[in-house]
Request: fold
Amino acid sequence: MVKKLPKVDVVIAGVGWGGGIIASELTKQGLDVVGLEKGQERKTEDYYMVHDELRYAIRYELMQDLSKDTITFRGNERMRALPMRQYGSFLFGDGLGGAGVHWNGQTFRFLPYDFEIRSRTIDRYGKDKIPSDMTIQDWGITYDELEPYFNKFEKMAGISGEENPLGGKRSEKYPTKPMKHSPQMDMFKKATENLNYHPYTIPSANLSEAYTNPDGISRAACQYCAFCERFGCEYGAKADPVVTVIPVAEKTGKFDLRTHSWVRRVLHNKDGKANGVLYTDITTGEEIEQPADVVVLTSYVFNNVKLLLNSKIGKPYDSATGTGVIGKNYAYQVVKGAASGYFKDEKFNNFAGAGALGMVIDDFNGDNFDHSDVDFIHGGYLSLTQTGQRPIASNPIPKGSPVWGKEFKNNSLNYINQTLSVGAMGASMPYQHHYLDLDPVYKDTFGDPLIRMTYDFEKQDRKLANFTAKKSADILKEMGADKIDSMDELGPYNITNYQSTHNTGGVIMGADPETSAVNNYLQMWDMENLFVVGASAFAHNGGYNPTGTVGALAYRAAEGIMKYHKNGGMLA
Amino acid sequence: MADDGKNQEEKTDISRRKFLRNSGYAVGGLAVGGVLGGVIPWGTDDDKKNRTAKQSQNYNQALMFFTQAEFNTVDAATERIFPNDENGPGAHELGVAFFIDHQLAGSYGFNARDYMQPPFFHGEKEQGYQGRLKRREIFKIALREMQNYSHQTFKKGFTELTEEQQDKVLQDFQKDNVKLTTISASGFFDLLRSLTLEGLYSDPLYGGNRDMDGWRMRNYPGSQMSYTKIIEGEFKEMEPKSLRDHM
Reply:
């Protein structure tokens, strides 16, 4: 027997960055919002024992329990998809704040090129530059239209940074000064300037100084303790939803946050409107219906797609014909085109750092350079980051040398504080045969089908990775490295080794209901009172960490939901 | 803030954790994350009080999972993976085999947070582990096979072999020269190697990295609260701290 609760204005499935931003914006304007989060409550006090690499980084303390839900994966449609039984390539967040708790805090804006990628590529290089199975499309919004929302996200989070000389126009400066520079960052800066590139300090959500945001939230400065990625911040210095937007929503008295609440279906009627959601209270097993005027899916990419497909909303994507939209344009990130340099006479404090500490150049990102003579489009940033090298995971050794025994020990102990890496955040283009759908065999803990990912690297990715590996090695050479190892071949996509938690697409935005699932307010074309927020809206993945763009889109969606609440109807 | 000598000792005795916790409760609400970090009394942790004067045994060094014979094999094998040398202690001295024993006895050994639902099919290596066996079962089988292989090849058990012979056995597992039906020899080797690194370098609370000597060997300072003062400077050697120092 399903328990039915009283109707509210808005119900949100998943309370991370997307859900937190929507909740804070709507409750501030007087709407009653219910937030359903399948994981547990989280707060800063949880992290006083957080400097524990084994527990958090290696055993995935903050990540979703895969025994309950995972995805299946295959490289192509001829293969049998098999479950991702253990973590590797990417990490699902879990609990209040979601993946927004364990991120590094590198907060970029996608380039103007990204939002109009198809038209701009054709304008400059002609139609033939785009392979026939590469399904890039414009996003239905321009950088200039999105700029105010980027700005809003950055002010809320207190992003520390300096202007990107090759980025889109900014209406305001970053709210806080750039992070401190370590000696290795200065080496990267000098080397890239010598090479006539345009270095700048990575925009950081780890605060460079104490900051009070427009909502009155005060946070302290980052301590460079080197435990960001895969960890929660014990100081609240790293912007995450739990220390920024969620308390704002809660203070209004309008936000009803329910943890341990696993949303399983969006309920909808014959008129094509959502009625609310069905969820399970996982502490009691009780099934509960939460009716609402507006439903917002703010879960991670895979779960947004899963909820739509399991609820039979929108037209599922069909890879044979390239028609349908739900599950379309899954994309990832090409990060392996990197290089490491060994400095025999210098030692660095590699153990210290912050998640978003580093220097970066955009000279080879987007369309900032001429692609006429290269076999790929787009690109990626190149950076030197200093996130803090922890001893279990970081044991750099020369390529081809033994991985155990006396020589390994000697090498790893000598190299650890004398090795620096430069790497790329390579953009990832969508293809007709890369997509998400429901797995026909494997189920989650409630018996609902898992999401199946069909994805592999393409020629575009291999060429791009070779290009960025070479550029990375050139920079290390200019920095004075005595010995450099760089990637030779990208190889097939492998789900077992960590690359990035930058999964995108599946519920993409656009200007045309035939080729996109949501409009530029992230409102479903097929269901006007359903909004789907997150990197699931990305029509491709850019050459940056995605969170800045996710945040901007969430503020845009919040504005759309308010408009819809007042006037109804399609917003675009 | 009053700073008379009488209160000094009591003040410095407040651990950072308690300080944060108490302040967190007091402030609550909107300030949740932040401002506290700025007023934390850096460097006032004094763990001398936590050390007992009496030397006590390390009761943690006993077995939860392995038999004594299995333990000895793991101890010898991990020492070959990370041997004692002029750089410092090896896996044996750092307690790596105890670490592995304790890990396999708990949720990690039972693959508690892995997706272990059937059906099981052989997959491509890009798809990751697809076996039905749990880590503790893999270890039991693999250690038995290592003994068998040692006897077959050298007519002695693994722990009785010379270092070169032990290396040969491990290499043959690493390169899948040993053909096993139930588990992957190289898969086991990779697991053993990962667990060795974890035992060398995890916080000593888990039973390895004895006295933080694994960290000392590579100038890793462990659990420091802040690097603000050194982040802009040259390389700095520091005495490591453990999570115990923050209790």
About this structure: The two ends of chain A are 39 Å apart (CA to CA). The longest helix of chain A spans residues 459-479. Chain A has a mean pLDDT of 98.
